């Protein structure tokens, strides 16, 4: 079985002299091998999976990244690139005996070119800092993951990150012109180029969204857009989640392409209300955030149309942001929603599935029914405009709800595939959903993907164990950290 | 609850507070040490992770742990940034005393800390040190020692102290405040003023300005004579017993005066005094009194925000960069009031500083015990301030004033916001208001 080859590659014995070699090329201050310190790198934004790496390298330049990867290649050591560690699919989960290469010291904005509308940045620059650097020219970087103030462009490239405004503007892949990358053997190369259209295979397109399995990006040339002349934002309340879902369908069916259409259900609104200066109606069943941008006349006309459609679909209240500050409050609440759920539930899973937009109301109804049956609460906050759901499955580890919640979460993802959608809209497959890949892809599909991967990384050192199902990963039941009974009894201990 | 925790049983960080962290990382870009070195262990998320592991007994309290707890400035920028409402302030304050009790410090670190706490909270001793420092400068010793390269060879901590000494005057070192400053016109409030320990020696001018403005706005100002250090420096350094002792004494002193509010003009002192209830919660004799006292503490800008301006302000044409002291903005949520106070003066233009949420590196005694990180942060802050081309920099904390002054490269007037209002009320030029 071709798909299982990667695992054999990673279990190769680790040589002894590599830590010294790593320290020699990066400097001792840039290599972490202390067991306690390593523990802080054992997971990313998805804490359910934890693996302690053998070392963490913190290079400061492309050359140092290449040198670190070179050491890995010579010694046959697996490596995992890590940005801000905000990923929600375990994409930056370390490999045991492997190295984590942190890109948090490559944080320079090298060039902002307002004439050609592009910027060249290092991978550790946060998504929002690109827009901040471009702001004085009236420009911005369009893709806006909810974690944009934290997550880095390197991780965005790896995951092909989306965000609220990708409905109109497209995903990361539509905004990256070129990437300097370090391949698995330590060579540095550039994919893409300065023009939008290049002849030949779209290797940059293959690289974006490869979840760190093809190499490490060390420099990114991104497209900048002129800030829209006008932006208008509203929050429309609905008495039922289904009515809000129908309103989304109606808006898009009317030929309107909003900059963003987001939905929050009541549980999500409660969470947001507990954390920020909330502008959302506390007791509404569902709220849609609709934003339009563009030339003022067009925006004014379409904004009226959207309000009319929402009212026709039974909206109970429409709040229009009066100024930039109110708009910021709307978005602040929406973008902090995942983490805010921590205030209403001790534990939760973040799901990330996609359904065809026309089936939004249907899928939300079925999720609610499944949640009722399982006796588990599910909060919904998501990119409604492109059908990208983020059901948050709330549970209490202490009350023993974990297994039921996990089952429900997986069933929801599978329901999305069943309805003609996808396992993941933007968070990636990572470690979390690798085992579900065969539900969406046939064996031939996966084998073809692996051949592409092997063309870049024949030895399988680059973020192994992610994206593709492996017997070790899928034989064991994944889930949040649970102490082994012997650990609880104090017989064994975990380092 | 596991019995294998690495913390002792005296007020360890609670499991509930640790569990609030969902590992989202929203705190990372607000953390000064993470901004500098990009290491997970030197971020709030990483530090909470270490605390969590120690609470479970999976890692010991050792030099590794203390290195990352000590490197935290305690600026609390991560607290307002956290969408899950994690109380990092309570967590770090619970862990510092544990470190203090269980992890032996290096010799130099021990000496520096001992010296700092033997001098700073004691105005009489600090005055002696300041006089020695002034003589050292006035007599040209500073210049000659620098020329000889002696200063360069001193430990970084001592060098930091040498460079932080502000240009105070002998007269202001020994100035004394009146015990009661009567309200001008009809009395609107009666308040007690904290003089501070380092504050009264190094920034007596700020205290005098504070009393004058409060009086001009109708406050009778009581300055309790026997008051001592509030314990903020001790508290932020994990010296819990010392902080509690000082808190009790300060409560005793101020309780003797019947006032509407206890007014503070140092952000670090104010934030600690507002936490006395938490600090003394286990002391039956003081728990209630501490909570009551804490509830009466106000920053001077809070008090003035509640009193519509009565005293006329003369015009001051100045572009003022306002620097949010961490213990005012992050710890007390006071951001708008000082800006409004400055804007109450006609002609003043208040500008914000880029990267405003990143600490200047002062952070209590941080710039003395972690001089390298503090220096990098100080330079970064000074550059950010200078990028706004201000005439004046205003900040409401003694530590920030010292730290920013040390790294500014251009000639900018550095003041506490209250000094701007004071100058405007008295109609004197800013920066020359000393008498």
UniProtKB/TrEMBL annotation, chain B:
User: Which residues are in the 4Fe-4S ferredoxin-type domain?
Assistant: 11-41, 63-93
* Source domain of life: Bacteria
The EC number of this protein is 1.1.99.14
Its needed co-factors are: [4Fe-4S] cluster
Q: Which InterPro entries match?
A: 4Fe4S_Fe-S-bd, 4Fe4S_Fe_S_CS, Cys_rich_dom, Glc_ox_4Fe-4S, Helical_ferredxn
- Where does the record place a coiled coil? none
Q: What UniProt keywords apply to this chain's record, in alphabetical order? A: 4Fe-4S, Electron transport, Iron, Iron-sulfur, Metal-binding, Repeat, Transport
Note accompanying the cofactor annotation: Binds 2 [4Fe-4S] clusters.
From the Swiss-Prot or TrEMBL record, give the protein name.
Glycolate oxidase iron-sulfur subunit
Task: Give the species.
Answer: Jiangella asiatica
């Amino acid at each position: 079985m071709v798909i299982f080859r990667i695992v054999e590659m990673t279990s190769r014995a680790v040589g002894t002299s590599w830590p010294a070699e790593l320290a020699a090329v990066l400097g001792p201050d840039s290599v972490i091998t202390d067991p306690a310190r390593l523990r802080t790198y054992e997971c990313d934004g998805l804490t359910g999976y934890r693996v302690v790496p053998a070392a963490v390298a913190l290079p400061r330049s492309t050359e140092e990244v290449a040198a670190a990867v070179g050491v890995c290649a010579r010694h046959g050591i697996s490596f995992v690139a890590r940005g801000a560690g905000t990923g929600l699919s375990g994409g930056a989960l370390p490999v045991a005996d492997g190295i984590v290469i942190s890109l948090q010291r490559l944080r320079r904005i090298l060039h902002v070119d307002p004439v050609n509308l592009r910027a060249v940045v290092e991978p550790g620059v946060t998504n929002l800092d690109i827009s901040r650097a471009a702001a004085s020219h009236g420009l911005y970087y369009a893709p806006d993951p909810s974690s944009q103030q934290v997550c880095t462009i390197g991780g965005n490239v790896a995951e092909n990150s989306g965000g609220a405004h990708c409905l109109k503007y497209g995903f990361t892949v539509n905004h990256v012109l070129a990437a300097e990358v370090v391949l698995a053997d330590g060579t540095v190369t550039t994919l893409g180029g300065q023009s939008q259209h290049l002849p030949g295979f779209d290797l940059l397109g293959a690289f974006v969204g490869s979840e760190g399995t093809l190499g490490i990006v060390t420099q990114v040339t991104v497209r900048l857009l002129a800030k829209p002349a006008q932006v208008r934002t509203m929050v429309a309340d609905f008495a039922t989640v289904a009515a809000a879902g129908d309103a989304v369908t109606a808006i898009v069916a009317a030929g309107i392409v909003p900059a963003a259409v987001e939905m929050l259900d009541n549980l999500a609104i409660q969470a947001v209300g507990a954390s920020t200066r909330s502008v959302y109606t506390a007791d509404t069943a569902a709220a849609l955030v609709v934003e339009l941008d563009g030339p003022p006349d067009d925006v004014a006309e379409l904004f009226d149309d959207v309000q009319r459609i929402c009212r026709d679909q039974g909206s109970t209240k429409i709040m229009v942001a009066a100024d930039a500050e109110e708009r910021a409050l709307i978005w602040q609440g929406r973008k902090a929603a995942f983490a805010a759920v921590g205030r209403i539930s001790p534990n939760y899973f973040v799901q990330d599935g996609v359904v065809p937009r026309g089936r939004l109301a249907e899928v939300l109804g079925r999720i609610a029914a499944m949640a009722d049956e399982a006796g588990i609460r599910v909060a919904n906050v998501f990119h409604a405009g492109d059908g990208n759901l983020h059901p948050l499955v709330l549970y209490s580890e202490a009350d023993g709800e974990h297994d039921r919640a996990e089952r429900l979460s997986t069933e929801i993802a599978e329901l999305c595939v069943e309805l003609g959608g996808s396992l993941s809209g933007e968070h990636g497959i990572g470690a979390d959903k690798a085992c579900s890949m065969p539900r969406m892809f046939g064996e031939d599909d996966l084998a073809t993907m692996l051949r592409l991967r092997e063309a870049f990384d024949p030895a399988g050192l680059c973020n192994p164990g992610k994206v593709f199902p492996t017997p070790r990963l899928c034989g064991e039941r994944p889930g949040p950290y649970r102490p082994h009974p012997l650990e609880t009894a104090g017989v064994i201990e975990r380092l | 609850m596991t019995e294998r925790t690495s913390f002792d049983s005296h007020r360890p960080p609670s499991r509930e507070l640790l569990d609030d962290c969902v590992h989202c990382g929203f705190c990372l870009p607000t953390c000064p040490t993470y901004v500098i070195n990009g290491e997970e262990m030197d971020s709030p998320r990483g530090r909470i992770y270490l605390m969590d592991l120690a609470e479970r007994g999976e890692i010991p309290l050792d030099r590794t742990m203390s290195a990352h707890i000590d490197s935290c400035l305690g600026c609390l920028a991560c607290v307002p940034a956290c969408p899950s409402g994690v109380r990092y302030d309570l967590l770090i304050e619970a862990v510092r005393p544990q470190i203090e009790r269980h992890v032996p410090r290096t010799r130099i670190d021990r000496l520096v800390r001992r010296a700092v706490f033997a001098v700073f909270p004691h105005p009489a001793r600090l005055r002696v040190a300041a006089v020695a420092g002034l003589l050292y400068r006035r007599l040209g010793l500073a210049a000659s020692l620098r020329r000889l390269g002696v200063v360069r060879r001193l430990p970084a901590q001592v060098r930091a102290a040498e460079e932080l000494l502000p240009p105070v005057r002998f007269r202001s070192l020994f100035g004394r405040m009146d015990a009661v400053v009567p309200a001008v016109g009809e009395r609107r409030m009666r308040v007690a003023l904290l003089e501070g320990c380092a504050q009264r020696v190094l920034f007596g001018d700020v205290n005098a300005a504070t009393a004058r403005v409060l009086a001009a706005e109708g406050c009778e100002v009581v300055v309790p004579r026997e008051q001592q250090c509030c314990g903020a420096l001790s508290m932020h350094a994990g010296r819990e017993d010392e902080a509690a002792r000082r808190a009790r004494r300060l409560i005793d002193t101020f309780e003797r005066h019947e006032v509407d509010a206890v007014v503070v003009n140092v952000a670090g002192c104010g934030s600690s005094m507002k936490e006395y209830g938490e600090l003394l919660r286990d002391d039956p004799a003081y728990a209630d009194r501490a909570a009551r006292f804490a509830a009466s503490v106000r920053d001077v800008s809070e008090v003035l925000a509640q009193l519509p301006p009565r005293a006329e302000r003369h015009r001051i044409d100045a572009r003022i960069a306002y620097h949010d002291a961490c213990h005012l903005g992050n710890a007390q949520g006071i951001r708008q009031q000082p800006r409004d106070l400055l804007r109450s003066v006609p002609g003043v233009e208040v500008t914000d500083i880029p990267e405003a949420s990143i600490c200047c590196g002062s952070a209590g005694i941080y710039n003395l015990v972690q001089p390298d990180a503090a220096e990098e942060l100080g330079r970064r802050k000074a550059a950010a301030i200078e990028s706004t081309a201000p005439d004046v920099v205003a900040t409401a904390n003694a530590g920030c004033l010292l730290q920013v002054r040390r790294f500014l490269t251009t000639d900018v007037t550095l003041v506490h916001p209250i000094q701007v209002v004071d100058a405007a009320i008295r109609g004197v030029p800013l920066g020359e208001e000393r008498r």
